[in-house]
Specification:
Length: 462
């Protein structure tokens, strides 16, 4: 039987929850049945994991028949199998094994040292299955597993049958692909306070980095070539910001190394979320690590600025107060918040907004304290975008029914800040057709810096 494995899409979420409920039926009559029957995989949680790229599906003849979810809430250098299920009718055909190996392979490329999971010791398709795939039982009372053990006990799993298992991952080797996150950003406010002699606008803004975004894959070459194996429609290789970033780093450092670059896009293009700049920053940070070129953060940020005004904040990897063209950064400690990010699916051209005669260009300067107090919370582009882009205006109006909806950057994505993950999920679940809603957390340091430390610590062997 032929099957394929690929990343899950948002519209797979309900199907995956149905697969999980079908798989749970296999535990009828088992001691753990009361626990399994009283739990279900929340569809909002699945959508959240899909949006973060943590879910893969197995497809047979166009139908999803199994899936695996990863969970990053464990130890720093470990990642967990949150759920893996296959429809009972497709059991015993190698699908579960392929999903497990696929997830472990991705975890290795992302620099994780091991994969963890919790399972039942006495069920053939649980602990014995994982043991065949390199997992071994570990001490469930170890500090790394305290949170998972507490959760299991709260859910009533039979403690004497519940085991935790881990699989160590092989170190990355020269020539292996590596995975680097490229997080999105929000502008929590944006003010234009003047214009410089070179024609650029003077800005004030607060960048908030998110735990959601694109994924950049890098593979080192020894022949000096920098290539993009997969074509991107409408973007010639020489114009691709990631390729330009790699070539800039190579030229600046004089390295003889090269690279292959792939990008999995999740951040909408032209949405004001910094996707292209973040991708370029991830290439700079990733290749500086993999090539061992040794540039410090200041040098990388300076290189990034020549590629785009937003690149330095992604290189530095911390939410920040920004001035100048966006490159003069002061790190800010922002409270834990969750965001509903709505994509109206309307491209907003930034150059046209900067040229708009009605744009306010000489606003009085704000201060960090005025932002913190809430006195500075506007986006200078919002009135112009509202007037020129009715779909963005409609998204702002809809989201504004739940609180203070704001435009990010020059648009067209809009967002709402919430205090809890549950509140954000509740709003996103009501998103009207024609728009797309994502839920993301503000995060510091950024996932890119975490990945740099993880992959750099694990190292590449020659």
């Amino acid at each position: 039987m032929h099957f394929t494995i690929s990343r899950a899409h948002d519209d797979d979420a309900e199907r995956l929850c149905a697969i999980e409920r079908a798989a749970v039926e296999l535990f009828r009559g088992h001691e753990a049945w009361p626990s399994y029957s009283g739990m279900s995989l929340p569809v909002d949680t699945v959508r959240d994991l899909i949006a973060r790229g943590m879910v893969w599906v197995a497809v047979v003849d166009g139908d999803v028949v199994g899936f695996v979810c990863l969970d990053t809430d464990g130890a720093e250098h470990a990642i967990g199998i949150a759920e893996i299920d296959v429809l009972p009718a497709f059991g015993g055909k190698g699908i579960g094994a392929a999903l497990l190996e696929h997830a472990c392979a991705w975890a290795r490329e992302a620099g994780y040292r091991r994969v963890d999971l919790g399972t039942l010791a006495d069920v053939p398709w649980n602990a014995p299955f994982y043991a065949k795939h390199g997992f071994a039982v570990v001490d469930k009372h170890a500090p790394d597993f305290a949170r998972a053990l507490r959760r299991d006990r709260e859910n009533g799993f039979p403690d004497h049958l519940r085991v935790f298992m881990s699989r160590p991952l092989e170190p990355l080797a020269e020539g292996d692909w590596t995975v680097w996150p490229a997080p999105a950003k929000l502008n929590l406010f944006l003010r234009i306070v003047g214009r410089r002699e070179d024609g650029y606008h003077e800005l004030q803004t607060v960048f908030r980095l998110l735990d959601w975004g694109d994924e950049v894959r890098l593979r080192v070459r020894t022949d000096g070539a920098i290539t993009r194996p997969k074509a991107v429609p409408g973007v010639p290789e020489e114009a691709d910001l990631t390729v330009r970033a790699a070539r800039l780093l190579a030229a600046h450092t004089g390295t003889a190394m090269g690279a292959e670059i792939e990008v999995s896009k999740r951040i909408p293009m032209g949405g004001g979320l910094g996707g292209g700049s973040s991708d370029a920053a991830s290439v700079l940070v990733g290749l500086n690590t993999l090539w061992n070129t040794g540039l410090d953060e200041d040098a990388l940020a300076a290189l990034g600025l020549s590629l785009g005004a937003d690149v330095p904040v992604f290189v530095r990897g911390r939410s920040a107060w920004a001035e100048g063209v966006g490159e003069a950064l002061t790190p800010m400690h922002l409270p834990r918040r969750w965001y509903v990010v709505v994509d109206p699916r309307e491209h907003v051209p930034t150059a046209a907004l900067f040229a708009a005669p009605e744009l306010t260009r000489q606003a009085p300067r704000a201060t960090i304290s005025s932002f913190v107090s809430g006195a500075s919370a506007e986006n200078a582009f919002e009135p112009v975008v509202r007037a020129r882009h009715p779909r963005v205006a409609a998204a702002l109006d809809w989201l504004g029914g739940f609180g203070h909806a704001r435009l990010s950057g020059s648009g067209g994505c809009v967002f709402l800040e919430t205090r809890t993950h549950e509140a954000a999920l509740g709003v996103a679940s009501r998103c009207p057709g024609g728009f797309t809603a994502h839920v993301a957390a503000g995060i510091d340091p950024s996932p890119l810096l975490v990945a740099r430390n993880r992959i750099g610590a694990k190292g590449i062997v020659s």
